[in-house]
Design brief:
The chain is of the alpha/beta class. It contains nine helices and 13 strands. It has a six-stranded mixed β-sheet with strand order 9-10-11-8-12-13. Strands 2-1-5-6-7 form a five-stranded parallel β-sheet, with helices on both faces. α4 runs antiparallel to α9 and α7 packs across α9. The structure holds NADPH dihydro-nicotinamide-adenine-dinucleotide phosphate (NDP) and biliverdine IX alpha. Its cofactor is Zn(2+).
């Protein structure tokens, strides 16, 4: 059994503990067992699991795996500490708030011979799986992805990083991209922000990504994809799958721990993750230059 610790008890951390306590039967995650959780607050217990100190988590030999579920600004440091301590790491996206930090972390994982896995539940939703099928084989002429949501608490980083899931959608659907322009409108006093990035596909087709957050904005993604043959103006409407998104991700991570994922898939994932973080970095740079 792979002893596991969950670090950070928020929305994601609680779901991680829940899933570790009741893994999907006959799945790789049955090989994981939760040994405790780490929090900067004194919580004592969570779902019957005991709080342990960070030092204990790093030092205990029966803990081989860490799931880092804290806010984004803490990820880089926590991943580094657990990898240095010889643990495998699963981190909620984004793994870091710069491209160079992410490259360093991958190098460290490789050097230590440990699995580094970045969760991407946005790729596991039923609507995305259908969208990917619907887009396959079509030629994009021009497209827009407009995300809206409520304001984030502090610690989530520049919006191209906290919104990396939207960038990841675009890259998964249309291939590697370049950034043409980017700008950020921010009204701190109103807790409002809007990031607009102009991207180009390898065929120089324009894609617009808008990431907009503010009080009263509900969590939604609007698409407008114009292909040579048709236009898509809404996400496919499909029923939710029975297995939860974080549970699907945990299974993928557990398969990596058990060596069941082909190297070519691991390499492709790592390349996509680094590519998206590089785009996020460039978007941040251009937004700050244009401000
Ligand atoms: N929520 C989701 O659906 C998804 C989240 N993610 C990613 O997961 C990570 C964590 O996100 P999420 O769980 O939503 O963030 P939260 O804001 O819920 O939690 C972040 C951290 O804040 C601390 N915290 C939580 N509640 C409180 C509180 N009441 N008072 C003080 N501190 C608190 C916890 O750390 P501590 O226990 O140390 O105090 C926790 O790990 C992010 O990287 C995000 O991008 C990715 C995909 C989906
Ligand atoms: C209700 C309050 C609520 C909060 C506080 C919330 C937080 C939250 N959801 C996220 C992603 C996500 N959140 C969800 C889905 C959910 N996540 C949920 O907490 C719930 C109830 C669903 C509903 C199914 C998905 C699918 C993602 C992946 C990103 C995406 O698809 O855009 C993220 C990561 C950053 C991001 O991509 O925006 C945060 C911080 N989501 C919420 O819906």
């Amino acid at each position: 059994m792979l002893g596991t610790v969950v670090v950070g008890i928020g929305t994601a951390g609680r779901v991680r503990i829940r899933d570790l306590l009741s893994p999907l039967s006959s799945s790789a995650s049955e090989k994981m067992t939760v040994k405790g959780f780490v929090s900067r607050r004194s919580l004592g217990e969570e779902q019957g699991v005991k709080q342990i100190s960070l030092e204990e988590a790093l030092n205990r030999e029966d803990i081989e795996v860490a799931i880092v579920s804290t806010e984004n600004t803490s990820h880089e440091d926590q991943i580094r500490r657990f990898l240095e301590a010889g643990k495998h790491v699963c981190v909620e996206y984004p793994m870091a708030l710069s491209y160079t930090a992410a490259v360093d972390l991958w190098d460290l994982a490789q050097q230590k011979g440990k699995v580094l896995h970045e969760e991407h539940i946005e790729l596991l939703t039923a609507d995305f799986k259908q969208l990917k099928k619907d887009v396959a084989g079509k030629n994009i002429e021009e497209g827009t992805l407009h995300f809206t949501g409520g304001p984030l608490q502090g610690g989530f980083g520049f919006p191209s990083f906290s919104g990396i899931a939207r960038l990841t959608w675009l890259v998964e659907l249309f291939g590697e991209l370049t950034v043409k322009t980017a700008s950020l409108v921010e009204e701190k006093e109103n807790r409002y922000m809007k990031l607009t990035a102009q991207l180009l596909t390898q065929d120089q087709r324009p894609l617009t990504w808008i990431e907009e957050r503010g009080p009263g904005l509900s969590r939604a993604k609007n698409i407008n994809f114009r292909f040579d043959t048709c236009t898509m103006e809404q996400l496919p409407i499909v029923p939710r799958e029975p297995v939860g998104l974080f549970m699907q991700d945990l299974n993928l991570f557990a398969q990596k721990l058990l060596g069941q994922v082909p190297p070519a898939q691991l390499q492709a994932e790592r390349r996509r993750i680094l590519h998206c973080l590089e785009l996020a970095d460039r978007i941040q740079q251009l937004s700050q230059e244009s401000a």
